[in-house]
Design a protein that fits this description.
Layout (H helix, E strand, L loop, with lengths): L1 H11 L29 E13 L1 E3 L5 E3 L7 E2 L9 H4 L10 H4 L8 E20 L4 E6 L2 E13 L9 H11 L2 H6 L8 E6 L2 E11 L7 E12 L22 E12 L3 E12 L2 E7 L12 E8 L3 E14 L2 E12 L3 E4 L7 H4 L8 E13 L10 E13 L1 E2 L2 E12 L1
Antiparallel strand pairs: 1-5, 1-21, 2-3, 2-20, 4-5, 5-6, 5-7, 6-9, 7-8, 9-10, 10-11, 11-12, 12-15, 13-14, 14-17, 15-16, 16-18, 18-19, 19-21
Length: about 425
Amino acid sequence: MKKFIYLSIFFTYLSIYSVSYQPSFTYPDSFIGEPRVTKDWLSTINLELRGGYAEEGRNGCKQTVNALNIYGCENFYDLAKGVPADILDCNPNGYINTLWQQTPRRANFGQVCVQGKFNLIEFTPSITQNFTHGLFLSLSIPIAQYSVKGVTYYDQTTKASAPTDAAYYQWQQFINNVNCNLSTYGLNVGNCKLSGLEDIQLFGGWSHSFENLKYPDFIDLMIALGINFPTGENADPTDSFCISLGYNGHYGFPLMLTASIGFFDWLTLGLNGSAMWFKNKTRCVEMKTDCAQQGWIHLAQDYANVKQGTIWTVSPFIKADHLIGGFSLTLSFSYDHQNQTFLSPCNATVYNYSIVNSDQIYYPWSMTAFHFILDFDFASFKHSWAPCLAFTIDKAISGKRIFKSAIFGATITCNFEW
């Protein structure tokens, strides 16, 4: 029995996750993990590879739609309404420039549904170093490729919704060559891909374990404070479906609180609460110029002071530890929520504050996700450096204004005692 307890304590050193926190509306974050173990001078190297896709999403009413339709259909009828003249002058004879003035509004005229698929490949090396008294540092350096492919436009305009046959055929000529027509304004409204470094995160934290208890087996606690460095490439506001590799150049300040409690020498129950606040930043963004506009595509881009919405997460988990040999199983749900992002246009005489902030792109989003982790420890007393291998599934299952991504991954973790 004593040997079993020693083995259980030893194996908890191996069941370690990297300390990172980067929620996104595009895909579920990795399982946040258990409290960091308190062994002095323990070093952990973690390599994580993830990949997945999303063809569906949830719109603002929580309805299942295509991933590129989470903000509703593109309203081309009002696309040029309120847009500054210097932007429209890029294509002075453009059909879209005066559509809202010269063609009476009817039903679905000018409404277009966009469909496409989001793909992700992500590799994250990280290192965590314990010191004494439960203190530790953790550094994560994620690298990723985001792509949006198969962008297709499905016109919702019917012939009956057009005021005249001539207006309908003129509209058809525009929408059938929409990529080329909007490129004259400097926009890319087709497929896009972004590759490179994501935002780097550095955490400092403290953990403590209450052991030698009669009941329960243990209680572990962790608190970690971090900095999110804006190293990821920003989304290009002229690339309509481009998604940033980070938080669009904003410094972030994440906080993580985790607690777990053990029973029966094999069962762990835990709860994580996390949040991240952002530093305001002035940057070039897409600008909504009329309340009727909706979707991803905007003709106007200009500078604004951006107050990025705070993100917070609640994530309970249950773990069956070393049930069969070195196999452990962890199940978790997470709820992520980002508050609304607010823009203060630098050119307030041209861009109305209320109209700009009525854009659904900046509205709050929320995601409920399921996390499955199956891991196996190869370590033993003779080979404490042997790795732990984990296979993961992270699936978005519900929410508002999100992609319903399914992400599959594998992780290898090595621990070194000094």
